[in-house]
Structure formats: C-alpha cells, structure tokens
UniProtKB/TrEMBL annotation:
Biological source species: Pseudolactococcus chungangensis
Protein location: Cell membrane
SUPFAM superfamilies on file: ABC transporter involved in vitamin B12 uptake, BtuC
Entry similarity comment: Belongs to the binding-protein-dependent transport system permease family. FecCD subfamily.
Transmembrane segments: 6-29, 50-67, 109-128, 134-156, 182-202, 222-253, 265-286, 292-311
GO biological process, one term: siderophore-iron import into cell
Protein name as catalogued: Iron chelate uptake ABC transporter family permease subunit
Amino acid sequence: MTKKIAGIIFLVILIVSSIFIGLVDLPIFELGTWSSRQNLVLLSSRLPRTLSLVIAGASVSVSGLVMQNLMQNKFVSPNTAGTMDSAKLGIVFVMIFLPNAPLLMRTTVAFGFAFLGTCLFLLISRYLPSKNTILIPLVGIMFGNIIGSIATFFAYQHQLLQNMASWLQGNFSVVMRGNYELLYLSIPLFIIIYLFAYQFTIMAAGQEMAINLGISYQKMRLVGIGIIALSSSIVLVSVGNIPFLGIIVPNLVSLKFGDQMKNNLPLTAYFGASFLLICDMIGRIIIAPYEISVSLIVGVLGSICFIGLLLKESRRYS
C-alpha cells in the first residue's frame, strides 16, 4: 500500500513539473496573480501537453504489452511489427488523395493500413522459427522499413517529405487545446484490453492452450490486432511516432512483476506515462529555451535498453 501511494505521489510530481516547466514562467505559488497570458498558456498549451504525454505514454506501452502476448514474443511491438510504418503509409495516402480530410478521417485510414500491415506481418511470422525470439522482431523491423520506404517514395514523388517528417515526428511542443482530444479514445481501448486481459494472458501460452481453455484464438487475435492498430494510429496521427517505448516498458515491468497481464496493465500504463513525462522534461530543459524532440530522447534511452534486452536474450542461445 505504501509503494502504491509513493507511486501515485511520484506521478503527480511529474505531472505538476511538466505543467510548470517551459519558456513562459508560471509561478506555482502565485496562481492568483497570473496574467491572462499565463492562464492562456496553462489551459491551451501546458495542460493539453501534459495530458497527451500521460495518455500517449500509457497507450503505446500497453499496446506493446498486448502485441507481445499475441505474438508470444517479448521483443515485438507496433514499432517492430510494421504497425506504425503501415499507419505512416496510410497517412501519406491521405495527404495525397484526401489532403483536406479531417483528423478523424486520417485516423480511420491510418487504422485500416495499420491493421492490414500487422495482419500481413503475422502471416509472414508463421514461416519464421518461433523459438528464436530475436529473429521475429528483426524481420519485423525489416518489414516495417520496406513499408516505410514505400511511404517515403510516394511522399517524395508528391513533394510531401517535409510535411510527412514534421507530422510523424514524436513532438509534443505543438500540442494545443483542440488538436489532441482524439487521444481520449485510447482510454476506452484500455478498458477493453483490461476486460480481455485474461484471454490475452492465456493466448501468450500458445494456440493449443487457448483453444483447450475455450478461447476463440483467431477471433481474439483479430480483436487484439484491431485494438493495437487503432491505438497506434491515434497516437501517430495526434503526436507522431514514439520509438521503443512499447518494447522496453512492458519488458521491464514483466522482469520485475511477472507475466500476469491483468496485474501488469496498470503498471505498464503507469511506467509508460512516467517515462515519457521524464523524457519530455529532459528535452525541454537540456538546451532551454529550445527543445529537443521527445522521440529523440526516448529513442536514445530506449535503444540502449533494447540492446541490453537483446544481449540478455542472446545469452540464452550462446
């Protein structure tokens, strides 16, 4: 109980710190004397940014946890299974053929591409040796790079490279009131995942075990893929790509707390949100008053953790 309270207090400290760190000074002990400009900054920028960091960090981490259970592999995530790259291709498609489409339409198209891309990767993974846990994510990265190259080619052909790069880079500095609310759809998706957590945990033991326990394996797999694709598309369209988060957070949580998904879901969401908040604040502080993109900070720290996890796993085969 004490650890839970300490964890909640730590997250609250991170949230408050995120709200009050920035170029415009918002003195926390002088709330009653703030100018209209300071109130506008709080309500239109700082608060939306912090909320989007919490939701996106939790959403990406939980999506990674679900995918790892579906694939029975600790090193897959939307970033290493072609999901994000397929969604990226969908966004390029919208930029070319539906340039004036609203945000919801962009998300819908990105979801369709992400769902199909993930299903294609699952089909490819059937022909890979399942016992080699490192090979599958490496093939997934190559598959994603192929999809990403196709997206880049079409973006280049239509002179959209700069638009695509700015749109898809994980950057919360442009989050404002009115352009991040789509992230709230991740909350009901989290509730659905929690309701099906038992089934996803059983599926991690394999198809035969799931069928013996009365679970419709293929249907549940499609449900899981749909949730992952939709959640990934929402994050990508709203705030851009956040690398490695969906791998390292679920792995570190499972190393410490075990593999029971229903127990790990809140912890994965908590640590994902906390980690992203910390990375974003580092990006704001390190070269203030300028900012470093949070995707760069997460990419550097996440890649180090990812390499460490791969080296640990490779020792099992040496």
